[in-house]
């Protein structure tokens, strides 16, 4: 195998992208560390084989970021055992004090050129090692990390005093990056004493002016401003002679951003077209040109993204339609394919568009938002009421009927907010009229795949036969109090329905669903519970459900697993911390509750961390009763980003309890906690 191994140079090229720390992350001075991540450590690459260990070690140690006492202690021990490792360290970022090991680290790293120091240090975090080690290095770039509320304590004072005293000895220091709210003027003045700093990097123009007065005697050549500028630049700089010639505006890439740094973009870099009269595809046939331009406009108007996520807030690309009449004709169907009604009056505007251009209705695929803008329940007005308010409400509801009568290819009709188990039970919003729903069934019943909008209750009982027209419906959120006549129920209705949310409903609707076959049902959300109808529904269809979300206490945990034996994901909306029903530990830890299929539990509760019963649950949870359970997600959880908050967080404590049971705890984004390195006392 040794003869078939790759040369070290090629291995280095392969591993460099994975081990490289971008400079914008290393030099980040935001209030939240860009290194507060919970992914696999890059050091795992060193364990692949000896060749990777040999090549990757210098790459790994080139940039060192220290975020905890345990990391500092482990690094100090590694540098003492292998003195060559310290030679590789070129850039060092320290996000705390971290005690005595910091002296060993700085003493063992003679080649540090870039040093990032935090002044966000609490009184319990010793800076003695850092203060003792700083005189042993001589960086060329210094970066200060600081938040708006910098702790005022003895440890911070000691560090600032040390920096102020040794700064004149840093004769190589040439680049200084400073946050806007670094108010240590004496420290900055001491850094200026050597007259070596030629570049200042600051967030804003006002910070540039503030710090320029301190470093005006240094041989400054450049003052980089990483944020945009607004207002009268020349008028502002009139008071700072010499600063205008040094200012450079650079759009700095932020940590976690997918946007690359644009640098200093000038008009000369853009360039002029070689032939201003050039017309693309001038000699091509008309149908070929239209086909190509349609594909271009399809992507330019973000149609693929909106097809995948109709509710994504992609800004409308109206200027594309204004390029020419030719573009307007080709792009109009794509522009109206996915409609988001975000503001009052958009429904009436849409009515005007489809009435002037009836052919556009067949191109509309999704409508997101409220077609009825009144938010008034129909029962608030009697049918004999001819007042102006009543007429206005009826007119607004007619907008939905007009629009839906034209949308022959509609695939999704969605509200921007949907009733959930966490909502208050007495919400009484408006919605589209029942007449508008019947019109939609006539025009797009065979194409509609997603329906999640509020519907006003019909004035008289309706026949469930209408659901047989939903031949393509896959996802249904039902928020309507209409009463159904149960004499004739179509058992074969809703053949494609996979996701069902029962938000607000009359018990007769659940009875009708219970008597249907619903062969494709897999996901169920129960927001309100009529006990007997709900239980009957679960007895009939519970064996098909693999993903269930409900309010805890409405359907007992034991009943859930009995009625839904194949459940894989269980979501629970929990009551308020002061609720007497919050003591739920007995249901989960009981030996009588067993599920061999449950793999994930989602807890929808922003107050979970305040409830002492949950720690008891996590401690006593019998993993043998749930052999497939691998993840619990807390939607009220947000992982802490610094060592002090980590030590206080109940979420971290619970994550480590569950980790011993081979169960991961995830935050609201689905990010799982990784057990951190700890100091052994």
UniProtKB/TrEMBL annotation:
What name does this protein carry?
F-box domain-containing protein
User: Could you tell me which InterPro entries the record lists for this protein?
Assistant: LRR_dom_sf (IPR032675)
| The organism of origin for this protein | Roridomyces roridus
């Amino acid at each position: 195998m040794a003869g078939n191994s790759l040369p070290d140079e090629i291995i280095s090229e392969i591993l460099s992208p994975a081990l490289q720390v971008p400079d914008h992350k290393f030099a980040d001075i935001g209030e939240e560390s860009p290194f507060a991540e919970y992914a696999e450590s890059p050091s795992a690459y060193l364990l692949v084989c000896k060749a990777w260990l040999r090549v990757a070690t210098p790459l790994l140690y080139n940039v060192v970021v220290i975020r905890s006492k345990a990391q500092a202690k482990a690094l100090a021990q590694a540098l003492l055992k292998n003195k060559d490792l310290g030679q590789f360290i070129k850039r060092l970022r320290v996000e705390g004090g971290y005690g005595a090991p910091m002296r060993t680290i700085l003493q063992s790293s003679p080649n540090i050129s870039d040093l990032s120091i935090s002044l966000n240090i609490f009184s319990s975090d010793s800076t003695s090692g850092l203060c003792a080690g700083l005189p042993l290095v001589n960086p060329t770039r210094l970066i200060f990390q600081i938040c708006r509320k910098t702790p005022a304590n003895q440890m911070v004072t000691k560090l600032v005093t040390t920096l102020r005293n040794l700064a004149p000895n840093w004769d190589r220091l040439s680049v200084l990056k400073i946050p806007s709210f670094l108010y240590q003027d004496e420290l900055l003045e001491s850094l200026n004493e050597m007259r070596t700093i030629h570049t200042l990097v600051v967030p804003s123009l006002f910070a540039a002016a503030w710090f320029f007065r301190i470093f005006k005697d240094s041989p400054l050549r450049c003052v980089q401003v990483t944020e945009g500028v607004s207002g009268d630049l020349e008028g502002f700089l009139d008071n700072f002679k010499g600063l205008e010639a040094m200012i450079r505006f650079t759009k700095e890439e932020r940590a976690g951003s997918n946007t690359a740094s644009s640098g200093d973009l000038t008009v000369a870099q853009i360039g002029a077209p070689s032939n201003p009269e050039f017309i693309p595809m001038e000699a091509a046939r008309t149908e070929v040109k239209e086909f190509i331009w349609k594909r271009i406009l399809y992507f330019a108007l973000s149609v693929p993204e909106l097809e995948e996520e109709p509710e994504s807030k992609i800004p409308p690309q109206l200027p594309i339609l204004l390029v020419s009449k030719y573009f307007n004709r080709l792009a109009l169907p794509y522009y109206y394919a996915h409609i988001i009604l975000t503001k009052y009056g958009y429904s009436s505007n849409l009515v005007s568009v489809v009435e002037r251009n009836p052919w556009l209705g067949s191109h509309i695929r999704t409508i997101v938002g409220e077609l009825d803008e009144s938010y008034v329940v129909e029962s608030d007005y009697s049918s004999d009421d001819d007042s102006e308010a009543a007429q206005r409400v009826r007119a607004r509801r007619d907008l939905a009927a007009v629009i839906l009568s034209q949308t022959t290819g509609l695939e999704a009709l969605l509200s921007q907010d949907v009733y959930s188990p966490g909502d208050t039970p007495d919400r009484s919003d408006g919605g589209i009229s029942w007449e508008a729903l019947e019109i939609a069934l006539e025009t797009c019943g065979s194409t509609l795949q997603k329906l999640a909008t509020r519907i006003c209750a019909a004035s008289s009982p309706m026949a469930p036969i209408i659901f047989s027209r939903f031949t393509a419906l896959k996802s249904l959120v039902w928020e309507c109090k209409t009463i159904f006549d149960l004499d004739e129920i179509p058992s074969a209705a809703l053949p494609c329905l996979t996701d069902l949310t029962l938000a607000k409903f009359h018990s007769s609707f659940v009875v009708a669903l219970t008597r249907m076959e619903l062969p494709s049902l897999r996901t169920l959300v129960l927001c309100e519970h009529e006990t007997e109808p709900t239980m009957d529904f679960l007895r009939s269809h519970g064996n098909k459900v693999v993903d269930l979300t409900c309010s805890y206490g409405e359907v007992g945990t034991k009943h859930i697993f009995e009625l839904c034996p194949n459940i894989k994901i269980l979501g629970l909306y929990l009551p308020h911390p002061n609720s007497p029903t919050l003591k739920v530990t007995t249901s989960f830890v009981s030996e009588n509750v067993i599920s061999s299929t449950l793999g994930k539990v989602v807890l929808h509760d922003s107050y979970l961390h305040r409830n002492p019963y949950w720690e008891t649950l996590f401690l006593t949870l019998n993993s043998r009763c749930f052999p497939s359970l691998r993840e619990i997600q807390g939607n009220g959880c947000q992982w802490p980003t610094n060592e002090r908050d980590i030590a206080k967080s109940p979420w971290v404590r619970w994550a480590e309890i569950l980790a011993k049971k081979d169960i991961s705890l995830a935050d609201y984004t689905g990010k799982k906690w990784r057990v951190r390195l700890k100091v052994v006392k």
